[in-house]
Amino acid sequence: MAKANPLQFVQQVRSEVGKVTWPTRREVLLTTAMVLVLATLTAIFFFIVDFIIRQGLQALLTYFG
């Protein structure tokens, strides 16, 4: 495989970066907010599930212990 000239490489990289579609500020803020909301909802869900399981196990251990 032939090695590319460093200058050629930089030109190719700049050409490829020019093809990238960058998100707008609004898109970045919207997706960031969505990630934060969904992460919070997931944390709340697992907190509730953990609480229910803990209460159930404590009830079982109290009943049989």
Structure write-up:
- The protein has 65 residues and is an all-alpha fold.
- It contains two helices and no strands.
- The longest helix is centred in the C-terminal third of the chain and has 40 residues, at 25-64.
- The chain is elongated.
List the main descriptive attributes of the protein structure presented here.
about 60 residues, mainly alpha
Helical proportion? Answer: over 70%
C-alpha Rg, in Å?
26 Å
Q: What is the chain-wise order of helices and strands?
A: HH
Mean pLDDT: 93
Our estimate of the beta-strand percent is under 5%
Q: Provide a count of the helices.
A: 2
User: Can you tell me the residue ranges where pLDDT is under 50 for at least 5 consecutive residues?
Assistant: none
Total number of strands: 0
Main sheet summary:
none
- Categorize the overall geometry: elongated
Cα separation of the termini: 72 Å
Q: How do you describe this structure in short?
A:
By secondary structure, the protein is an all-alpha fold.
